[in-house]
Each structure stands twice: as C-alpha cells, then as structure tokens.
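User: quick one, fold this
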Amino acid sequence: MTEAIRTTCAYCGVGCGISATPTGPRSVIIKGDEAHPANGGRLCSKGTHLGETVGLTGRLLHPMIGNKRASWDKALDLVAKKFRETVERYGPDSVAFYVSGQLMTEDYYVANKLMKGFIGSANIDTNSRLCMSSAVAGHNRAFGEDVVPASYDDLEEADLIVLVGSNTAWCHPIVYQRIQAARAARGTKLVVIDPRRTETCEGADLHLAVKPGTDVALMNGLLAWVAAQGITDPAYMADHVNAPEGFWEHIRDGHDLWTTAKTCDIAPALLEQFYKLFAATPRTVTLFSQGINQSIRGTDQVNAIINVHLATGRIGKPGAAPFSITGQPNAMGGREVGGLASTLAAHMDFAPDNVARVGRFWAAPTMATKPGLKAVDLFRAINEGRIKALWIMATNPAVSLPDAGRVREALEAVPFLVVSDIMADTDSSTHADVRLPAAGWGEKDGTVTNSDRTVSRQRPFLALPGEAKPDWWIVTQVARRMGWRNAFAYDRPADIWREHARLTAYQNDGARLLNLRAQATIGNDAYDAMEPFRWGGGRVFADGRFTTPDGKARLVLTKQMDIQEPLKQWPMTLNTGRYRDQWHTMSRTGLAPKLARHREEPLVEIHPRDAEELGIVDRDLARVQTAQGNSIFRVCVSDGQRPGEIFTPIHWTDQTSSGGRTGLLPRPLVDPHSGQPGFKSTPASVEKVATEWKGFLILRGAEPVRLPCLWATKVTVPGGALYEIAGNGDPARLEAFLPKGDRVEAMDMTRGTRRVAIISEGRLRGVLFVTRTGLLPSRDWLIRQLEVEGVGGSVLAARGPGSQPDKGATICVCFDIGLNQIVAAIRDQQLVDVPAVGKALGAGTNCGSCRPAIANILAQAQSTQETLHAAE
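Assistant:
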C-alpha cells in the first residue's frame, strides 16, 4: 500500500477533502480528510464510494476521429484546422466552447483565455450556467462582485438556519450534517422552504411548502413584515446600503401577511411563525440552492433574499449571511476565471477599461468586447446555423440542458463537433466528429474552489490510462497549433495557476475582492503542497464596504412573477432535481453498485390525490409529457408532493434507460438577467402506461445492452448489471440477449411466468424472469450468485436454502441496510431513535446521508404503533 494522497471530492460544491490511498493500478481506499476545513473527515455516500468509480469501464482511452482511432497529433491538428478555418470564414462568433464545473480552475483558465483573448469571442459558457448563474447575477447586482458573503463556519455560529429551495440532506449532505451538529450543540433552529416535503424537512422546526415560483413574494413579504415591526437596521443601511427610488413603497404595497400567504399558498399562521422567528434571531444564515436559482425569475429571487439580509444588517457578521451553495466541485473556480459567457476574467466584466486591462495582461491579439452566448442561446444559435464549430468539455448537454430534444438536433446539425470526455459513449459524444480522451478524477492535477471560497488542491493518485490527457494540456495544444505558441507555453498546472493569480491582482486597487496576489509567485513545490485557503478571508464585508463604485451594497427592486394557472392540456407542474446517491448524468456514480441501489429507476413522484384521479398506483409506469417532449417513468405515489405537482430526477440517459429522460421535458425559458433555465415549473401532463408483462434481466459482466422493450433501466450491481424491464408483445425476444451456456428454464402458463437461467462452468451468466400476472422475486439473492461458484439449476427458485428474508429497498448505502431490516429491528428491539438504529444495525453511522430517512421510518413506526394501541 502506498502513501495516502490528499485531494478533493469530485462531486458537489461543498468541496470535501479526501484522503486517497492507492491499493493497485485502478483501486483506492477513500477516507475523509480530517484536516480539511469543509468536511473535517466526514464524507457523504457518494464520496465514500468514489473508490468504486475509478475503474476503466466505458472509458475513452484514445483520440477518435469519427469511429476510428487516431493519433493525438492528427486529432489536435484537425481540431485546430477546423476552428481556425471556421473563424477565418465566418468570424470569431461562429465558434463556441461549452465547458463544465468538472474542470480544474487551470483547465477553465486556458479555455477562457483561448476563446476570449485569442479567438476573439466570448462564446464560452459552462454547465454551471444551469445551476448557479442566478446567484452570480444577484451577487453582482447587490455587492458589485460575485462574492459569497459566508463560510461554512457561519453554520456553527447561527441561531437560525433557513434553507430555501435546497434538499440539503440529499444534495449537500456534509452541509446538512454540520447543520444538525449545530442544532445539537447550540439549539439552532431550522426552517425549510420548499414545495416538496423532502428528507431535509425531517426534524425541521418549520416547513413552508410554498407554491413554486413564489419566493420573491415570500421574501418581500418578510422584508415588509420586519420593516413594520422595526426590525430593520436603519443605521447600517444609512452607512452601507443604497436603495433605489420607490423601493420601500414597492415593498409595502401588496406584501402584507395575508396577501403573501395567499400568493404562496400557505397558512398565514405558518407564515407569521416564520416571520416572527426570523425577526427574533439576528444570527440567521439563509442557504439557497437550485430551487431559487433554477427559475425564470431566479436572479430576483436571489436578490429578494439578499435584500432582507442587507436591510436587517445580517451580513458580514458571525452566523449571519445569505449563502449560495453551488452544485459542482468547481463551479466557483469557473466563475473566478471567467468561464461564463457573461464575464470576462478574474471577476471583471466587459467594460472597456476591463477589456483593455485583460488584453494588456494577456498580450491578446483579438479581445472579445462583449458577452457571448449563454448556454440555452448558444444551442439555439447552432440550430439557427450561426455556430459552425463547437467544443464540449466534460459535460453532457444532450441530457442536462432543457428541451434536450432540440439540443440533440443542434449537436447533429453543427458542422464540426469536438467532445473532450472521460467516457467513450455519452448521449452527446455520439454526435461528435472528434472525441478526445480526458483525465478523470483521481488523475487530474489542479485546484478547485468550493461554495465558501475555499481553494483546494485536487491531486492525482492514479496514472493516466491509455492516451488520456489533462484538459489544460489538450486546450493548450490546440491553441499552439492555431498559432499562439508563446501565449500558451505552459508546462504544468502550476504555471497556469500563477498566471491566473497574477491576473486577479493586476491593476487591482481594491476594486475587486478576488485578489490572489500572494499566490502569484508560488513555487512548484509549494503549489504541490498547497493547503486549503479561503480567498477574501473568513468574513467578507465585515467592514461594511462592498465592491461597488461608492462602496455601498444595493437593495434591488424585485418583482414576483405571474404564477400561471394550470392549463387544460398541461394541468400539472413539473419540478426536477437530484437523487441522494447519484450525480449529474451518472457517468461516474452509475459505475458504483452500492450507489445504484438507493433509487434504482427514474421515478415520477406524484401526490396520492392526483394518482387516484389519473387511475395510477404506486410502481405503475406513467408518461410525463410537456410541450417540449415526453418520457416514461416509474411511479412513486408520495404525499411529500403538493397536489398538482410532480417531480422527476435529472440523471438517466439513453445509456442507462429507455425512459427517465427528464431533460426532454423542461421549457427552454431562462432568467432575463442570468440566462439560467427555469427547471422547476414546467406545465406537464401525466398518464398511465399499460404493459402486458414485467420482469428483470441480470447479466454477468459490464458490457451494456439495448433491450427492445418499452421499459428497460440498467442498474449496476456487483459482477454485472440488473435491467428492470416491462413491455407489451412477446417477451421471448429478450432471450436473444442472454449469453451462451447451459440453459435451465421453468414456465407457469397460468401466470404467464417464464424463468430462464444461463450457467457456464458452474458460474451464473444471466437470468431472465418475466411474468404477466404473477409476482417477481427479490433480485438480491440472484445478484449475489453472479460472484458465486457452483451455481446449479435451483437458481430459478431465486433464493437459497433456508429463510432468505427480503431486506427491502436500500436505505443505508454504506452498510447495505434495507427498509425491511430497519423496520424489523425497530419492532423487535423496540428502538426509539436514530442513534439506537445505528447501534443495532450500523445504518446511519458512516456518512449520515440516510439519517433523515431512518427518522421518517421511526416516525411511521411510532404512528402505526399508536394507531394499534388506539384500536385496542
């Protein structure tokens, strides 16, 4: 075993430190880095199981031109030639880059420099546009700069934490753990504002299930209420805050308690309870995430939150701040170097003096002078024929962008498409003219910045596989081939980091808080040994000075958008989001068998009342349809949904399911300030999809198959893959996908059940179980047989000798504990709280992501017991 390498997690913007100890060429032991300030050794389920994702399954290992392997020289020469010729013929705005928060800051920097300083266009945008650009726009409007005015340490110092549009327990589990630790240590109150009752709501002091899109009304109502109660801070505002003309009149007009409660569709008493709690608690942190940002009024929603904090002086103080928590590991780093089409570089915009300043620093021949196309507009421009060459780096827009059907048309239509990725086949790369193999997590070398401005090193602990190369190297090589060798003469990431640091400090007289002057001369060894640090210090704006021309923050006049009433054709409202144990389009988490078991299939969650009216029951299949497209999902009937609203996950792709394609559904409507799409409120309809049979297929090995049936969803399991299937017609055609070997089978004509197993040399190679009217057995025992020797025909019984109780749906991924096991332990051992369940089973004692679910199971068990007692 080699020495542990300190690096940073590949997933969300919490930016957890990891200690990675390689145990072989493609194996590693993962632990939390106890010295890292973000997590102090804690890891969520995704981070805990990163070791399961570093294999080479599905990896792109060589450059490809079309479907043929090519040398790096040939591929890079072709990319440089096509981009150079396109610019010469159609101008610099005819090309574009679409990049990703999965890139290192150094990768981002060279891509941005190439496009904005040398190609001469600002047509470089990032998938971070989809998750936090409204926060960027809101920060700039309020503070004069994109600065998050909080740190995770504020969570331990707050007396009230308000989570707005954030399922923190699932999407930022370590932040949620820190919140729960603060509640236990100091009695911190927790309020959750979310249309859905998620696991984050379990144990909260208050949950406000507001109507989607009413956050501006809620926050303007709060500001009107605290102003009427005399809770604002006039002295702070006089010294440090400017308000536009008519601001307070606007706040007072139509934002009384009763009107606000009606707009938000919540009880006035609950709203007043929240307002009183906020007013009485000066140390308040308001954390907001995608529920706020992913709206066609996202920027106004951000500013409505910031307005309340500015007006009450709850900023720049311990435990008091508005706090945007980002989605990706380096969304913040991309913001710092200018990875968004709407910014130039180093927190500078396209003002003429900034364009001239950056041009001098880069010695750039052709500076971009205006913002470029934001993500949705960029792909629309391709369909309109305005973009002739596109380079996608480390992202999958055919899945993640709204109205993904149109995005696919754009990828097919663009004359020249380059994709740099770690995976050989994605929904986007299937359209590429050139595919370039990029370094993956564990192989990358660079820096990332998390949600509270902490810069951390991501260090390699695995060798680059095949011919894979770092993204910064790939971009640099293309730039050199386009004629700019001296400007891109980087030999290592440290060279790029130093240049980025110098640019943040260049002619920066305090107009921007982002200033990495101390890093500008860092040596290579010091770069390698870099400890995490937070730029701007621990508490920005503590002196009350902001980076506006007059040094004052700005209240922003925000307006509640008109809430559309249900339409006859589209009576439901679609909300989209993440699952606890999956990440983006599952190119990484989809490789981890344990992570796959929490939510095996893409579900549409629907309220029981709506399900009854539609004739839908739990576990049915249903088609979700919008004006943009449609896709089929497995049904989950849940009273956590508001009536009239549905929820679907963003993760599934054509590589993993015949349905579950959420990206096909949302409208391509964006916030007018940030360009961020509104993923949270698309008009939709739901209808039941009838099938004649259902079943599952289990195959040994990692080679994927495309099954010819209505519903087929792949689930990675130890030793192979499980496919949940359903359809119409004769299911016998699926037998063609079984491998070769000795065949054993059984049929039940009464129930229309067929069971087939393929065994070779005593090893199970595959099983197919289908039924028309009968029940299907648990898959767990059969899955375990993929790694067992001496398997016989009794495998068709789908269970071993003796009692084989079904563990139920996986609740604790870390220890593979199922729902039925937890319920049985609660009943048999009379367990009364989450720690007791942890002591009995281990569930919830590692990453803690499942603790809210365990608490909910305990509550349901207690309710059932009370009902039984009452009946007696």
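User: anything notable?
Assistant: The mean pLDDT is 95.
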